[in-house]
Write a structure and sequence with these properties.
With 309 residues, the protein is an alpha+beta fold. It has one domain (79-307). It has helices at 7-26, 29-36, 44-69, 95-104, 114-119, 146-153, 157-167, 177-186, 207-213, 218-230, 292-299; strands spanning 72-80, 86-94, 122-132, 135-144, 188-189, 195-196, 199-200, 215-216, 239-246, 249-256, 266-269, 273-278, 303-307. Strands 11-12-10-9-13 form a five-stranded antiparallel sheet. A two-stranded antiparallel sheet has the order 1-2. A hairpin with a 2-residue loop joins strand 6 (195-196) and strand 7. Helix 8 packs antiparallel against helix 10 (218-230). The chain is elongated. The chain starts with 6 loop residues before the first helix and ends with a strand. The relative contact order is 0.09.
């Protein structure tokens, strides 16, 4: 009769064999895992470090993108107020606002569709046929849509007007007209080009571009003054641009809906009342006072008044 083996001995032998197998495989365990795994195996601390680095990179990119988006351009103006006090005004203009305004104004002369020109700050005022080289050629007459330009630029000027008020030591409740006019008159008078960065602008800078380029002519500066007057807190100022064409003159002035004082030049609208005429081209002209030659031309009827608001 065969003697039966004690089961505890069998269990001990199996345990010893398992320990030996684990001992020999332990040195190659990581290789086996790496070979059969599709993804690298990391320690929890390493994962946290990688997440921290990724978050820092994302934050840096976000800050860099925001700085690029909010980049501002500085423009400095030196001017003399009506009290003969020398002043300096600093404007910080968003670069994206300049780009937006440049896209919004100016036309490609090869595109003649009226809707395209209307969207770019111009409007058609007439057409005429000409007989050239045995062909009938239609010529289109366009004019700057000053009202559209004024309304679109108003959103840019609330901060700029506040900066001007601060630099001019303007007290709340006082009439801003004299100091605003002096500032605009001190901006260098220079006629803008026909074309600006490849687009036809008809020798006109919109108010924001006038500040950006730091110069402008009569209509550019007149609309600029209108923007300052219209963007003062609680402003109810009604303005219009007066285009004078005749007697050898081609000029633009601003008209402001105010009752004239003795000696002032004004226009009368039977619905809205008096508009005093403002000369913005050069320093020295007080509100309501303009040259006699311009007065005579206006009296002759060689003008057009376009309301801005």
């Amino acid at each position: 009769m065969q003697k039966r083996r004690f089961p505890v001995l069998d269990i001990f032998i199996i345990f010893i064999i398992c320990v030996l197998i684990m001992y020999f495989l332990d040195g190659k365990k990581s290789d086996i895992l790496a070979f059969y795994s599709d993804f690298p195996i990391h320690d929890i601390s390493e994962i946290n470090k990688m997440k921290s680095r990724a978050n820092k990179i994302d934050l840096k990119d976000t800050i860099k993108e925001k700085k690029k988006r909010d980049k501002k351009i500085l423009r400095k103006f030196k001017w003399v107020d009506p009290g003969r006090v020398k002043r300096e005004t600093f404007f910080f203009i968003l670069e994206k606002a300049i780009k937006e305004e440049f896209k919004s104004f100016g036309i490609n002369p090869m595109i003649s569709h009226p809707l395209y020109r209307k969207n770019k700050g111009f409007k058609v005022i007439g057409r005429r046929d000409f007989f050239i080289n045995k062909k009938i050629v239609e010529k289109t007459y366009i004019i700057i849509d000053y009202r559209q330009v004024y309304e679109r630029n108003l959103k840019y000027f609330f901060d700029l007007t506040e900066a001007l008020c601060v630099s001019a030591d303007m007290l709340k409740g006082t009439d801003p007209m004299p100091k605003f006019l002096a500032f605009v008159q001190n901006i260098r008078f220079k006629k803008p080009p026909d074309y600006y960065k490849g687009k036809f602008i008809n020798n006109f800078f919109t108010p924001l571009l006038c500040i950006y380029e730091q110069y402008g002519d009569c209509d550019s500066k007149s609309i600029l003054l209108a923007e300052f007057l219209g963007s003062v807190q609680d402003s109810k100022e009604k303005t219009a641009i007066v285009l004078v064409r005749g007697n050898g003159l081609s000029h633009a002035l601003l008209a402001v809906n105010r009752k004239p004082l003795p000696g002032m030049t004004s226009l009368f609208d039977y619905k809205k009342g008096y508009f005093i005429i403002i000369e913005t081209s050069s320093p020295g002209w007080a509100p309501g006072f303009i040259s006699k030659r311009i007065v005579d031309t206006i009296k002759s009827g060689f003008f057009r008044m376009i309301e801005l608001n």
